[in-house]
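Action item from last meeting closed. Structure (305 res):
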């Protein structure tokens, strides 16, 4: 992993007897698009609120840009932009006027407004009252406000929630462009696996406040690779012969599960088993989708996750 931008150690938040976040160890490198994935109520927003200093952890530490948040909160947050839940705006004002109000608070150059409007592709709509904007345009305005202070880290909580397919595509393309074009590290939370899959470089999966998986999107894809399933007589002895032949395998019921092999190796393995006296009843490819991996990790049965 590249230089860490966010590191948490034992991050925990309790409300009475309920642990909303339990010993979370986040690691997010510079330039990452980190997909923070989990069902609604899994602890994503609570974690994000702690990262932004909006609520205090019950225990654990947060380091952002190598500094401890508890000790250097203001210095850290000056370099962080965020959009948590729905963006705030004055509906009767234009996008430009809304951003001007924020610019004065942040005390950044007026030219910054034109820059962020260009980034989120709202330049042509800048003078229109925000009350006439689509939901997707309002989300892009919220991201523009988060970018106004030229942050090094952008934290977005469910930025595509409630958007139509066109709006989702716009936000996704915008997020993907930020590390490459602006050098911004992005933490984006979602309950939609399909969205995280299409834009994240690293993934953290959280369920009931506990991190179940944290690695590259490539590793998640690797876990979803197809496997070869062989049903043979005397499966325990067949497993020994398969592993003796140098193949990684495991027994799942009466079936042998092997990491994906090319056709030639599968044929050679079947020949080895037949020569050893095993009957081969079935050879098939067992495909596992990313959604299958996700559902296995979380134990959830909702296919929209």
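Sequence:
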């Amino acid at each position: 992993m590249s230089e860490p931008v966010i590191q948490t150690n034992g991050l925990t938040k309790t409300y009475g007897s309920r642990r909303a976040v339990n010993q979370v160890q986040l690691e997010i490198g510079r330039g990452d698009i980190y997909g923070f994935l989990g069902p609604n109520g899994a602890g994503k927003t609570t974690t994000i609120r702690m990262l932004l200093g909006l609520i205090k952890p019950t225990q654990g530490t947060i380091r952002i840009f190598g500094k401890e948040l508890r000790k250097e909160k203001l210095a850290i947050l000056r370099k962080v932009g965020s959009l948590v839940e729905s963006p705030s705006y004055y509906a009767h004002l234009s996008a430009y006027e809304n951003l001007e109000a924020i610019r004065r608070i942040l005390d950044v150059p007026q030219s910054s407004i034109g820059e962020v409007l260009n980034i989120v592709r709202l330049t042509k709509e800048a003078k229109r009252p925000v009350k006439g904007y689509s939901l997707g345009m309002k989300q892009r305005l919220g991201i523009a406000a988060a970018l106004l202070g030229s942050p090094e880290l952008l934290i977005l909580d469910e930025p595509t929630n409630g958007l139509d397919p066109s709006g989702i595509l716009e936000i996704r393309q915008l997020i993907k462009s930020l590390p490459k074009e602006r050098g911004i590290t992005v933490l984006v939370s979602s309950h939609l696996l399909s969205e995280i899959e299409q834009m994240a470089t690293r993934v953290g999966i959280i369920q009931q406040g506990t991190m179940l998986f944290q690695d590259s999107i490539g590793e998640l894809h690797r876990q979803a690779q197809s496997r070869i399933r062989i049903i043979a007589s005397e499966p325990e002895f067949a497993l020994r012969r398969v592993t003796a032949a140098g193949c990684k395998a495991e027994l799942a019921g009466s079936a042998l599960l092997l990491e994906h092999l090319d056709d030639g190796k599968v044929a050679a393995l079947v020949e080895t088993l037949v020569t050893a006296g095993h009957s081969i009843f079935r050879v098939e490819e067992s495909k596992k989708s990313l959604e299958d991996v996700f559902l296995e990790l979380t134990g959830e049965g909702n296919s929209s996750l």
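Note appended to the action item: Confidence is low (pLDDT under 50) at residues 301-305.
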